[in-house]
């Protein structure tokens, strides 16, 4: 086990800055997920750590040792690639054996090592096959086995589940934590799938345009995203975002949605008339009875089931679209007019101009009369 | 649309046949000629019916060129050997130099790398005669004229750019990730070149080598100017069939068949390497 | 004029009939007017061949296809009155996004102002208003796909064919666009056939799903029926996210209780009346069965139930996915709240007989769903 520390890393390709003064510490034994849209710089960061790409500026430390100028073969890291990068002219066995071969191990030790890891990944029956004879899932496991076989203290996984089908991706997502925990390695995992990020990461670094936008536990990022962009990247269906204008009422600040006021808590740092965006996740919206004073009337447009949830697209009287999700099988309207309520303690408020989140995630609905 | 009718199938088949006949006929005719005497070849009108003879081949192999006037000594077999030696050595040298260079150009983009690669290619654009005249003078001064070494060197003008540019493309097609994976596994860059890049570019190297071999084999002008009789390849040697007493068509045809045979055999043998997929399905696209 | 599309005993061979690849095997299905139907299956299952036969890009080897009750399988594609969105988008590179979408209306000979209004409406729905004057090469894959969808949906056709219509869409837009497109199709009463390998898309958009595998139509039903009453093990395990838990079990009827023996020393006991008489007879008769239970139908309980040990608990924000060691295999549970269990915790799970799907281990055919025997 060893920690990984990046100090002020900058990487440019010609005039394009792909990484801009990144500093990051990954603790021993931690699984850190680098998450972000394509082009955010995740893969380049991973390649800097393994040593196949050199930074223009900054230092890479592995286990307190400066590795910035050390060649890739001497850094002692294991890596799995998104496109698997198997050696096409070698059997699965030779592919997996390649890290052990470089260490000049005896034939017997090499065979034992390969077979042990192959068994763990359930590919021991295809070791003699060439990569082209393997199914996609087997290729992916072979690539993973090659990264794991030498028990490297640092494991870099570059979106390893990207190119396998949904079912396999799900299975591997459940299987990976156990596999990684047994290896005792420090893991840096790159993904574009927020579910993978939340499921696998002890911490998640959300990257965008060469910078780390937010670093935190899955819960911190999901429940308290730093800005609108991050809020949009996590969650399926995507968070609802409505433009609102903050007003001052007798109970402090409030915002209106379709004429229904929502009270903002006293500690939000906003001013009267500030242009904001109200964010609330589809699962925090519920259908309510019409008579309720908090109820927002909506017209239901379509119902689209999603992963054991029923997702409803509805529009408010002034044409704003709202997604509502509820566990499949729970009752709810599927067409016509309905009324919804937003869970007050789970909504988020963002400044419209900067996109940054303002104040705590505490909003409460009040009856119309009280607000005025 | 795949709604093909019988008429379409017939039309397609006959069009294909016409194309095949058009391209294969000269070769077919040459093979027929090689089994005929000059008299039957020059008959008017030409006919496909004749009594086959092996005299053309016998003459070439024994070195006796029989014309109407006299029997001349020719050295066609020596020419054939020269062709083989010159082509094989040239391609070997070009591969030894060109493949590492191609790898460097493919993997390491440095300032001016494109310019250097293009300069090498531009050797192919220059008219050979333009290069030859000054070269002949230099070669005579430094004693390289009429040596195998000198010829092989000049043949690099043909082979090296070809190999460099074709093989470079094949190296560029190998996903860098495959090489990175081998490096990260703990192998040096040289081991990566030998164990990963070379085998994966194998089909490309074979194709480029074959093409270079054919170009070297077919070269005429360099050997004509720079080599004397005992070092000339078949292309130059064939001139001997144009004799004072006429052109020996039958023996030219036999000579052509003999000189085409090695390249043809090589091309047929190498074909399976040429069609073999490069990345062999290791990288998911 | 109720049936928009009808396939009768359609076969597709690549290569000689009887010897070539049998890509589509005797597929028959009827699609009602105004219905959205998804052809769902993994690659090579025959769904794309089927779509291409409907569109007219492939010849039908045997059988017939009718659109609006007219046999059309011998007509060229242009004479079938179908609109199609291609998987590879197939946008015209020299035309702008606006022209690409409007191009589909060319043969309709509409007033320019009508065309402009229709393009604007579609573009607004698909969030491509701001790129209408860009060229396909300068927009992202997701935007190209939306343009291609727009070009297909703007047409007034008897049938809209959508080949993997949403695979490249930006994840943040997906849920919203699914809702809007479904609303658009339903509002106009269009009939749409979509081909997809993504069951999320099929479930979200379609009224009925045709599950295909090996060129055979495995099941053609509403998403609810496919989920609750899969006709065979393939459909049961293929459709459902996360996939159905499946275990082999042997059945014994002893001491007035039904025992399902999962091996590894684990056996579930059910009272005699937990299963209806016909189901009980059928499974006891067989001895060996395959038991399936959907992850969301497995419930954690406080006291009663079977023991399992948590392997992982992954919270995804709106759901918790838990994998637990159970009968020497892995049992997956889904909960809609954040579950407070950690790896290594012992839990008790309840496998209610009502939620069990029972399959024949040899043929894979469904025997029973809960108490209901499959006839």
Please give a handful of descriptors for the protein shown.
heterotrimer, A: 372 residues, alpha+beta, Rossmann fold, OB fold (Dihydrolipoamide Acetyltransferase, E2P), 2 domains, six-stranded mixed beta sheet, five-stranded antiparallel beta sheet, 22 strands, 24% helix, 35% strand, C: 375 residues, globular
List the helices and strands and how they pair.
The complex is a heterotrimer of chains A (372), B (285) and C (375).
Chain A lengths: L3 E10 L2 E11 L4 E5 L6 H9 L6 E6 L2 E2 L10 E4 L11 H11 L4 H14 L15 H13 L5 E5 L7 H18 L2 E6 L2 H7 L2 E6 L2 E6 L1 H6 L4 H6 L6 E6 L1 E3 L2 E6 L2 E4 L11 E6 L4 E4 L7 E11 L2 E8 L4 E7 L8 E7 L5 E4 L12 E2 L2 H4 L1
Parallel strand pairs in A: 3-8, 3-9, 6-7, 7-8
Antiparallel strand pairs in A: 1-2, 1-4, 4-5, 9-10, 11-15, 12-13, 13-14, 14-22, 15-21, 16-20, 17-18, 17-20, 18-19
Helix pairs in contact in A: 2-3, 2-4
Chain B lengths: L5 H29 L3 H4 L13 H8 L1 E3 L4 E3 L2 H32 L5 H10 L5 H15 L5 H26 L2 H9 L4 H30 L2 H6 L7 H4 L4 E2 L2 E2 L1 H27 L10
Antiparallel strand pairs in B: 1-2, 3-4
Chain C lengths: L2 E12 L6 E12 L3 E5 L6 H9 L6 E6 L2 E2 L10 E4 L11 H7 L8 H14 L15 H13 L5 E5 L7 H18 L3 E5 L2 H7 L2 E6 L2 E6 L1 H6 L4 H6 L6 E10 L2 E7 L2 E6 L5 H10 L1 E6 L5 E3 L4 E10 L4 E7 L2 E7 L10 E5 L6 E3 L6 E4 L2 E2 L2
Parallel strand pairs in C: 3-8, 3-9, 6-7, 7-8
Antiparallel strand pairs in C: 1-2, 1-4, 4-5, 9-10, 11-12, 11-14, 12-13, 14-20, 15-19, 16-17, 16-19, 17-18, 20-21, 21-22
Helix pairs in contact in C: 2-4
How far the N terminus sits from the C terminus of chain C, by CA atoms, comes to: 32 Å
How would you describe the oligomerization state of the chains in this entry? Answer: heterotrimer
> How many extended strands of chain A?
22
> Mean pLDDT of chain A, rounded to whole units?
89
What would CATH call the homologous superfamily of the largest domain in chain C?
P-loop containing nucleotide triphosphate hydrolases
- Major β-sheet annotation of chain C: 7 strands, antiparallel
Q: Report the CATH topology name of the largest domain in chain A.
A: Rossmann fold
Order of strands across the widest beta sheet of chain A? 6-7-8-3-9-10
State the CATH superfamily name of the largest domain in chain A.
Answer: P-loop containing nucleotide triphosphate hydrolases
The gyration radius over C-alpha positions of chain C equals: 24 Å
Runs of chain C with pLDDT <50, length 5+?
none
Shape of chain A: elongated
């Amino acid at each position: 086990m060893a920690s990984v520390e990046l100090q002020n890393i900058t990487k440019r390709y010609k005039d394009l800055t792909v990484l801009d003064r990144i500093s990051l510490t990954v603790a021993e034994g931690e699984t850190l997920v680098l998450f972000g849209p394509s082009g955010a710089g995740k893969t380049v960061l991973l390649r800097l750590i393994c040593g196949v790409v050199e930074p223009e500026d900054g230092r890479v430390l592995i286990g307190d040792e400066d590795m910035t100028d050390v060649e890739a073969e001497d850094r002692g890291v294991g890596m799995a690639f998104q496109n698997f990068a198997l050696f096409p002219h070698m059997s699965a066995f030779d592919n997996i054996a390649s890290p052990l071969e470089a260490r000049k191990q005896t034939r017997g030790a090499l065979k034992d090592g390969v077979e042990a890891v192959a068994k763990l990944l359930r590919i021991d029956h295809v070791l003699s096959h060439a990569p082209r004879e393997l199914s996609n899932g087997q290729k992916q496991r072979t690539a993973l086995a090659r990264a794991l076989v030498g028990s490297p203290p640092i494991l870099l996984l570059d979106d390893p589940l990207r190119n396998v089908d949904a079912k396999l991706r799900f299975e591997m997502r459940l299987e990976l934590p156990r596999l990684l925990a047994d290896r005792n390695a420090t893991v840096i995992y790159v993904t574009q799938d927020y579910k993978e990020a939340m499921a696998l990461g002890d911490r998640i670094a959300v990257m965008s345009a060469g910078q780390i936008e937010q670093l935190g536990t899955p819960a911190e990022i999901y429940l308290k995203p730093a800005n609108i962009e991050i809020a949009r990247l996590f969650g399926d269906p995507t968070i609802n975002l409505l433009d609102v204008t903050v007003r001052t009422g007798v109970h402090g600040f409030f915002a209106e949605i379709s004429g229904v006021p929502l009270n903002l808590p006293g500690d939000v740092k906003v001013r009267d008339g500030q242009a904001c965006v109200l964010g609330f996740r589809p699962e925090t919206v519920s259908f309510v009875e019409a008579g309720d004073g908090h109820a927002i009337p909506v017209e239901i447009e379509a119902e689209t089931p999603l992963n054991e949830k029923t997702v409803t697209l509805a529009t408010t009287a002034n044409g704003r679209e709202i997604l509502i999700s509820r566990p499949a099988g729970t009752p709810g309207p599927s067409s016509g007019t309905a009324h919804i309520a937003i869970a007050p303690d789970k909504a988020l408020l963002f400044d419209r101009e900067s996109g940054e989140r303002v104040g705590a995630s505490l909003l409460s609905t009040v009856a119309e009369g009280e607000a005025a | 649309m795949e709604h093909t009718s019988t008429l379409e199938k017939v039309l397609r088949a006959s069009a294909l046949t016409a194309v095949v006949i058009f391209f294969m006929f000269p070769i077919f005719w040459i093979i027929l000629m090689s089994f005929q005497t000059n008299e039957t070849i020059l008959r008017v009108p030409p006919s496909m019916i004749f009594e086959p003879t092996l005299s053309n081949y016998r003459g070439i192999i024994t070195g006796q060129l029989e014309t109407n006037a006299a029997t001349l000594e020719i050295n066609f077999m020596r020419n054939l050997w020269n062709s083989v030696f010159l082509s094989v050595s040239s391609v070997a040298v070009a591969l030894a130099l060109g493949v590492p260079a191609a790898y460097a150009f493919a993997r390491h983009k440095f300032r001016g790398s494109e310019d250097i690669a293009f300069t090498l290619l531009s050797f192919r654009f220059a008219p050979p005669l333009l290069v030859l005249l000054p070269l002949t003078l230099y070669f005579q001064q430094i004693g390289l004229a009429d040596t195998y070494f000198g010829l092989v060197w000049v043949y690099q003008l043909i082979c090296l750019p070809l190999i460099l540019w074709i093989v470079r493309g094949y190296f560029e097609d190998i996903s860098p990730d495959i090489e990175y994976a081998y490096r990260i596994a703990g192998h040096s860059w040289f081991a990566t070149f030998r164990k990963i890049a070379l085998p994966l570019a194998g089909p490309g190297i074979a194709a480029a080598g074959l093409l270079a071999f054919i170009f070297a084999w077919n070269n005429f002008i360099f050997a004509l100017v720079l080599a004397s009789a005992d070092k000339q390849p078949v292309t130059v040697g064939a001139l001997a069939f144009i004799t004072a007493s006429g052109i020996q068509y039958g023996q030219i045809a036999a000579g052509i068949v003999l000189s085409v045979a090695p390249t043809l055999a090589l091309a047929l043998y190498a074909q399976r390497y040429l069609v073999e997929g490069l990345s062999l399905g290791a990288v998911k696209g | 004029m109720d049936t928009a599309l009808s396939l009768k005993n359609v076969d597709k061979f690549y290569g000689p009939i009887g010897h070539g690849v049998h890509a589509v095997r005797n597929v028959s299905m009827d699609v009602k007017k105004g219905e959205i139907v998804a052809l769902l299956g993994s690659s090579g299952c025959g769904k794309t061949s089927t779509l291409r036969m409907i569109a007219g890009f492939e010849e039908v080897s045997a059988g017939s296809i009718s659109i609006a009750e007219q046999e059309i399988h011998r007509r060229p594609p242009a004479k079938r009155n179908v609109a199609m969105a291609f998987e590879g988008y197939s946008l015209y590179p020299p035309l702008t996004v606006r022209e690409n979408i409007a191009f589909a209306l060319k043969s309709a000979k509409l007033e320019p102002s009508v065309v402009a209004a229709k393009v604007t409406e579609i573009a607004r729905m698909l969030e491509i208003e701001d790129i209408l004057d860009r060229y396909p090469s300068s927009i992202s894959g997701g935007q190209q796909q939306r343009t291609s969808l727009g070009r297909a949906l703007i047409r007034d056709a008897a049938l809209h064919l959508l080949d993997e219509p949403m695979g490249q869409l930006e994840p943040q837009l997906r849920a919203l666009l699914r809702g809007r497109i479904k609303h658009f199709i339903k509002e106009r009463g269009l009939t749409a056939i979509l081909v997809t390998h993504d069951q999320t898309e099929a479930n979200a958009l379609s009224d009925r799903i045709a599950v295909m595998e090996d060129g055979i139509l495995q099941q053609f039903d509403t998403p609810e029926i496919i989920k609750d009453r899969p006709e065979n093990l393939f459909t049961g395990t293929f459709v459902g996210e996360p996939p159905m838990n499946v275990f082999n079990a042997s059945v014994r009827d002893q001491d007035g209780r039904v025992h399902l023996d999962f091996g590894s020393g684990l056996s579930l006991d059910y009272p005699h009346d937990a299963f209806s008489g016909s189901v009980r007879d059928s499974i006891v008769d067989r001895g060996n069965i395959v038991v399936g239970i959907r992850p969301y139908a497995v419930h954690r309980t406080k006291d009663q139930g079977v023991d399992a040990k948590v392997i992982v608990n992954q919270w995804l924000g709106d759901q918790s996915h838990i994998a637990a060691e159970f009968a020497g295999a892995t049992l997956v549970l889904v909960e809609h709240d954040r579950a407070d269990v950690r790896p290594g915790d012992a839990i008790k799970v309840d496998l209610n007989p009502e939620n069990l799907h029972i399959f024949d281990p040899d043929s894979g055919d469904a025997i029973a769903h809960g108490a209901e025997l499959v006839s």
